[in-house]
Each structure stands twice: as C-alpha cells, then as structure tokens.
UniProtKB/TrEMBL annotation:
Keywords for the protein's UniProt record, in alphabetical order: Monooxygenase, Oxidoreductase
PANTHER family: FAD-BINDING DOMAIN-CONTAINING PROTEIN, FAD-BINDING PROTEIN
Species of origin: Puniceicoccus vermicola
Positions of region (Disordered): 499-527
Record protein name field: NAD(P)/FAD-dependent oxidoreductase
The keyword Oxidoreductase is assigned to this record: yes
C-alpha cells in the first residue's frame, strides 16, 4: 500500500480493481496524460488464479503492440496455436477416434495462453511505475456518484482504517461484482442465453504431442503438422463444451460451459463430479484425465454467466471488462472486450478531464457498447449450444465466424492501428448486414441440429472426420473463402431439406427441467 497524507486523497481518476481491465485502463490514461492523479483500489493482497487465460488475435495485438507487453508475453507465457475442436459419437472410444476441426499447420497470427497471476501483476506494477497510487488490500464500502461533479469512494484498509477518496472520474473494473452497475440497477441477466460454467486447474494432463506418439495414435498424431498442445483444445458435446488451456507453470486450466436448456444434473451432485461427468461424456475425456489431479482449492462455479448493462458510462463514471458485461467464453472473446472497453474508457475519461460538456460523447459510448453486445450475441452466440456438438455444422459455423472476425474486426484494427479501438465489434451501422447474415445462418443451423437430434442423425460425422484448414490472411482470398463457406452452408441446407426422419427414430428430446421442476422451453422459436 502507498501511504499518503489525508490532504492528498483528491484524485483525477479512481480505478476500482487492479487486475487486467483496471490496470490496462489506468496505464493508457497515464501514458496519454503522465501528470494525471490516478489511484487504483485493489481488494486482494496478491492476485490469485482466475479464468480469462486465453487471448485471440485482437487481444494479443492489444496486449503486445498497444500496451507494449510483447517482451513480457514472449518470456513469461505460452505462444498459442489457435483453436481446435474435438468431436465424438457412440462409435468413438478414444481421442484418436474423434473428429477434429483445427489448423493443419501452426497459425499465421499466434496469440498467447497467459497466466493471469503473472500478467495482472506485471500490468499493475507498470501502472505504479507510471505514477499511479495503489491502495492494497482495499475494500470499497460505498460509492457516491454525482453526475458532472466529484465522485466519492468510501473504502476500508486493513485494521479497519477508513478512507474517503474524491475524484472527477471513477473507472469501475470490479469484475463480476459490477459495483456501479448494481448500485444503479443497470445489470441484467441475459435470459436468452442461460449458460453456466464449472472450472479448475489440473496437474498430470498429458502433452498432446506425446499422445500422438503413443502406439495406436501415430496416424492421428501425424495428421496435424502444427502443434496441438499449446492451442486451446475443445472437447465438444451436445449442449456443452470443455476447454483445455495449458499454462506456463505446467498446470492445465480445464472448464466446462453448458446450456441449462440441454444439460442438467440431479440435486446433490458435487461441483467436482459435475465437471468430471461432462469431461468423461466425451470419448477423449478418460484418456486425458487418467493421471489428472485437481489443484487444491481451485474449483469454481458460476451460474447464468451471461449478463449485460443498460448503460456503460455516465458523466463521471465508466465501466470496463466484466464490470460492464459478459457474453460467453466460447472463442475467448473476454480479453477482446477488455481491449475495447478499456481503450474507449480511457479516451472518455481523458476527454472528461479536459472538456466540460461531454454528454454527446457519453451517449455515443453507451450506444456503441449496447449495440456491440446485442449484435455480437445475435450474430454468434444465440442458441449456438444447440448445434455445438455436430462436427459438420460447427465446421462451417466456426470457419465462417473466424473469417468474419478477420474481415470485420481484426483487419480494420491492423490497418488503422490504434484508431479503431474505441469502436467495439458490430457497433458500426455497416455491420448490420453482417449481423443479419450471421444471425439468419445461426437460426438455420439450430433448425438443422434439432431435426438431426430428433431423427438420431445428430453428430453422424463426428467419428474420425478430420477437417483441417489453413490460417486466414488479409488478402483477396479471405472474401473468396467466406463466399465458399456461404455456398457450403447453402448446400447443407438443401441436402437437409430432402432428408426425412427415418421410421423408429428417436423423438425430439424433452426439455430439461430446472430446479423448481417446470420444463424450460427448448428452442428460441418457442421462447
């Protein structure tokens, strides 16, 4: 903790939360305005383990190039080799039997698998080196918001010592505590997306490259010329998926995310058994977990993890990262969200310190992030868990999602460098067509998956089907590949239209029941 006399408890900016979202926002403010009087309040004595360990292209660029952390990332963390998906069905008995979608070679634009304990500590230290005042451990007790005036934060230090801080701006980086959002009644669960998650860290998870050299796995191991081990490997099931993320200390982060409309557990089942049950439902689960040991005290559960906010800023406050909203961990978008919210917040705060009238800028900020969340959800995630477990559908969906990400998000940022960071994905008016196309495609895939599930054809190609692909680039081939995927999607719909449910096929599965016992609606069309 930094000790300062009472007369110095007036600041320009108070940042609540010192981990990635808070520190990255503070660091951007301090680099643009070195003389800014900025204070960070961090509740923990030391950073513990946390999820959000996997970057993708945008967040890797943000951390490496924009925050200038490339040297730290390359020395302290692992180079990530893309996303890889493994599917199975009743014919699959082990990992080598599973269908696979993933890069054939090492990816063109690698990102990072990060240890958040190390990364967050590095960023917070850089903030202190840049002049930030740090109170740690510090518990925020009350926030007084005064639109256009001074904001007040009442907090408590060890030994019950109380502090009252005043600042023109507060940055809420409190994570899922969402202090300002809950105080103002702005946070709402995304009821259209009832997903929950269980996760832990494990030791004893085998190296994927070594698995490929075992007797019986040689063909499976040699069909991929790049590295499986340092990518994010996903075990895909009907209504759920499992992530496996290697960490630099030798542990592996393993977590399950599931849609409560498709997956339920009997009462009394422990969290550990729920996680292991989902892992072992997959044909590769037992093989991967044969010698695994869960790290002590590192099992976590969050129910209905998707939520949003009515507003993301006011005249004197702004939210970043998970304190603003959370959508879904699939495709690892969390750090991208941190990149966009923290950059836009830092620019808004600096403008607010300089200008008296920024209401239009605040309105634009709220419109941008509200549109981004809503469109991002409609385009990519709505009802996606209904077809996650079918390789043929997910192969097209993933390639299209990734290609559109490169076309509409990654490429503009690379070309404009730092100019587009304050406009989050899908917030532009011209993104409406892409959102419409992706949302319509998702809805059609859900219908196909439901038909297949009802007729017993769901996941028929999951056994031993290998669908490799090469990394996307920014040249003319990107649009050509997307056009080809649109044709594949159309072809799948045409073929599916002529499929008839075989006699004696299994009926449409009954909707799972919630804890109160009533049936949940099964598809979006009935909700």
């Amino acid at each position: 903790m930094t000790e300062i006399p009472p007369q110095d408890l007036n600041f320009d900016v108070v940042v609540i939360g010192g981990s990635l979202s808070g520190s990255s926002t503070a660091l951007q403010i301090l680099r643009r305005k070195p003389k800014c009087r900025l204070c960070i309040l961090e509740k923990s004595t030391d950073f513990g383990r946390r999820v959000g360990e996997s970057t993708v292209e945008v967040s890797a660029y943000f951390l490496g190039k924009h925050l200038n952390l490339s040297d730290h990332l390359n020395r302290k963390h692992l180079i990530k080799q893309g996303l890889r998906f493994h599917f199975g069905n009743h014919r699959s008995q082990r990992l080598a039997d599973c269908g696979e979608v993933g890069p054939h070679y090492n990816v063109r634009m690698p990102s990072y698998q990060v240890d958040r304990t190390i990364l967050d500590a590095e960023l917070l230290q850089q903030c202190q080196d840049s002049g930030a005042t740090l109170f740690r451990p510090c518990t925020v007790r009350e926030i007084e918001l005064n639109e256009g005036g001074d904001q007040v934060v009442h907090c408590e230090l060890p030994g019950a010592e109380s502090l009252t801080l005043r600042a023109r701006w507060i940055v809420d980086a409190s994570g899922r505590s969402t202090l300002i959002g809950r105080k103002l009644g702005l946070i709402h669960p995304n009821t259209e997306h009832p997903i929950s998650s269980i996760w832990a860290r494990f030791t004893g998870i085998p190296n994927w490259e070594e698995l490929g050299r075992k007797p019986g796995n040689i063909q499976w191991g040699s069909r991929v010329h790049g590295l499986r081990d340092t990518g994010t490997n996903h075990l895909m099931g009907d209504g759920y998926w499992i992530w496996l993320i290697p960490l630099s200390n030798g542990e592996t982060s393993i977590g399950a995310v599931y849609d409560e409309r498709l997956i339920s557990f009997p009462k009394g089942v422990s969290l550990a058994d729920r996680l292991l049950d989902l892992i072992q439902r997959h044909p590769g689960g037992n093989e991967l977990m044969a010698e695994a040991k869960m790290c002590e005290g590192d099992l976590h559960f969050r129910r209905k993890i998707s939520y949003f906010s009515e507003k993301y800023a006011g005249n004197g406050w702004v939210t970043v990262g998970d304190a603003a909203a959370f959508l879904d961990p699939f495709y690892s978008p969390g750090m991208d969200w941190i990149a966009f919210t923290s950059n836009a917040a830092s620019r808004l705060v600096l403008a607010g310190l300089k200008e008296s009238f920024i209401d239009q800028r605040i309105d634009r900020h709220n419109e941008n992030f509200s549109a981004s969340y809503e469109r991002w959800f409609r385009a990519i995630y709505k009802d996606k868990y209904f077809y996650l477990g079918d390789l043929q559908i997910m192969d097209i969906a993933f390639r299209t999602d990734l290609g559109m990400y490169y076309l509409g998000v990654v490429r503009p940022l690379m070309k404009a460098r730092s100019k587009n960071w304050n406009r989050p994905p899908f917030s532009h008016a011209k993104a409406k067509r892409a959102v419409w196309f992706l949302a319509r495609r998702n809805a059609r895939f859900v219908k196909i998956a439901n038909r297949r599930r009802a007729s017993g054809r769901f996941g028929q190609l999951n056994h031993q089907t290998y669908r490799p692909f090469d990394s996307y680039g920014f040249n003319w081939t990107l649009k050509m590949r997307l056009a080809y995927l649109a044709l594949r999607s159309f072809g799948l719909e045409i073929k599916e239209a002529f499929k008839r449910s075989p006699k004696g096929s299994s009926p449409t599965p009954k909707s799972p029941q919630n804890e109160q016992g009533y049936e949940l609606q099964k598809t979006s069309e009935n909700r």
